[in-house]
TrEMBL record:
Protein name as catalogued: NAD-dependent succinate-semialdehyde dehydrogenase
Residues in Aldehyde dehydrogenase domain copies: 18-469
PANTHER family: SUCCINATE-SEMIALDEHYDE DEHYDROGENASE, MITOCHONDRIAL
Organism of origin: Vibrio kanaloae
Family affiliation: Belongs to the aldehyde dehydrogenase family.
Active site: E249
Transmembrane segments: none
Length: 475
């Protein structure tokens, strides 16, 4: 493993493939090491231990849990460079971007360390003078999560932070593609004093096995999932047998809209930030661009010029903006969407180069129409299809014409239009003259088939708590 100064971050690794899952660098194909796989009986035993430990964890004063989370937060900051390097090695994103994710992920631990002390109940005016009505919030119990490969640290801390702050124990199954970051951040949590039974990382023989255990085990009261809508549907169906609490952050098909009164230069900067972060492999990436006919040519020219300045390569190399995509199947899927769009009449503004390995040259497609296949699917890659529109109502209908409703973006300087469009867009999050909207202090989540529940903000901790109503009589 390259240049990891805190070797305790790698203490979990096993010696060979017989004992674990091989993890490789998508930029080079090099095997980085082997992450431990838990047999089913170990996972079941871990759930039992988590249930027992949760009761003791919940009895700790909120201030004590808060203090332990604060220590974890500080250790994440102290190890930012090592964690970022590890993430780049196993996931591919540029090192600077990976370090940014570490800070972003750590921000949820800090935020929920503070929110641990603010899980307030309330008193309710009673309907008669002999009663007193009170509510209190209590941890839901053992919580579990299944997290994706594209944000291998932030997608864990965004769930673990509120769970631990609320008094839950927490078990996470990271992606088999990027498990090293998950085990590393858990090791720092243990160094901070969080008990090992309270926070667990598990890998099974396959994802379906662990998902089946999580959704069927009676001691697990809550499941949080970030991933595809298809898998989310299955997990919700499986969780229905026990009526488990679920929160789902699923697929997206984010529109990025540029009106004729927009600041075009600002819109281009926002488009670059939204579209090409993590090589376009984020659930809130701009997926389809709608640009008013009056400014279409100007936007496309400036946007493509900015795209041509991006440097593709190994994320550990200086100056690289775009790393590899995660797998060969991902690359083939993205290329298939590009080829299909070109067959249907789209045209690359600048012909992209064919790159070896898992690298892809970012491309802007013009002459795209709303009925092309690429518009209805989540691209999850460095491809930006740009569509013309003429009027606001036409735009709203096209932007909302999807089963998804996670993130959306638009640029306009007309305050009346801003309110109208913001209210009309059927999305859980709207970026207005802004391409980067994710933050720990605001609720993250979608509508329609992009999921249920919210992460971050004050709403995030409520996902891991139950409200109990107390009625005092005879007063």
């Amino acid at each position: 493993m390259q240049q990891i100064t805190n070797q305790s971050l790698l203490s979990f690794m096993v010696l060979n493939q017989d004992q674990g899952i091989a993890v490789s660098n998508p930029a080079t194909g090099e095997i980085l090491g082997y992450a431990p796989v838990s047999p089913e009986h170990d996972i079941l035993d871990g759930i039992e231990r988590a249930s027992f430990a949760q009761k003791e964890w919940a009895l700790l004063p909120a201030k004590t849990r808060s203090g332990l989370l604060q220590k974890w937060y500080q250790l994440l900051l102290d190890n930012k460079e090592d964690l970022g390097r590890l993430m780049t090695l196993e996931q591919g994103k540029p090192w600077a971007e990976a370090q940014g994710e570490v800070l972003y992920g750590a921000s949820f631990i800090e935020w929920f360390a503070e929110e641990a002390k603010r899980t307030y109940g309330e008193t309710i005016p009673a309907p008669s003078s002999d009663k007193r009505l009170v509510t209190m919030k209590q941890p839901i119990g053992v919580a579990c999560a299944i997290t994706p490969w594209n944000f291998p640290i932030a997608m864990i801390t965004r769930k673990a932070g509120p769970a631990l702050a609320a008094g839950c124990s927490f078990i996470v199954k990271p992606s088999e593609s990027t498990p090293l970051s998950a085990f590393a951040v858990a090791e720092l949590a243990y160094q901070a004093g969080i008990p090992r039974d309270v926070l667990q990382v598990v890998l099974g023989a396959n994802s379906r096995q662990v998902g089946g255990i999580f959704t069927s085990h009676p001691l697990i009261r809550k499941l949080s999932f970030t991933g595809s809508t298809q898998v989310g549907r299955v997990l919700m169906q499986q969780s229905a047998n026990d009526i488990k609490r679920t929160s789902m952050e699923l697929g997206g098909n984010a529109p990025f809209i540029v009106f004729d009164d927009a600041d075009i230069d600002a819109a281009v900067l926002g488009a670059m930030a939204s579209k090409f972060r993590n090589a376009g492999q984020t659930c809130v990436c701009a997926n389809r661009f709608y640009v008013h006919n009056k400014v279409y040519d100007e936007f496309v020219e400036k946007f493509d010029a900015a795209v041509q300045q991006l440097k593709v390569g190994n994320g550990l190399e200086e100056g690289v903006n775009v790393g590899p995509v995660i797998s060969e199947s991902a690359k083939q899927g993205i290329q298939s969407l590009i080829d299909g769009a070109i067959e249907q009449g789209a045209k690359p503004v600048t012909e992209p180069k064919t790159l070896d390995g898992l690298f892809m040259q970012p491309v802007v497609l013009k002459n795209v129409t709303h009925d092309m296949d690429i518009i209805s699917q989540e691209i999850f890659g460095p491809v930006a299809p740009v569509i013309k529109f003429d009027d606001d109502q036409q735009l709203i209908e096209m932007a909302n014409d999807t089963i998804y409703g996670l993130a959306s973006y638009f640029y306009s300087q007309n305050i009346h239009r801003v309110w109208k469009i913001a209210e009309a867009l059927e999305y859980g999050m709207v970026g207005i003259n802004e391409g980067m909207i994710s933050t720990e202090v605001a609720p993250f989540g979608g509508v329609k088939q992009s999921g249920i529940g919210r992460e971050g903000a004050k709403q995030g901790i409520d996902e891991y708590m139950s409200i109990k109503y107390l009625c005092f009589g005879g007063n």
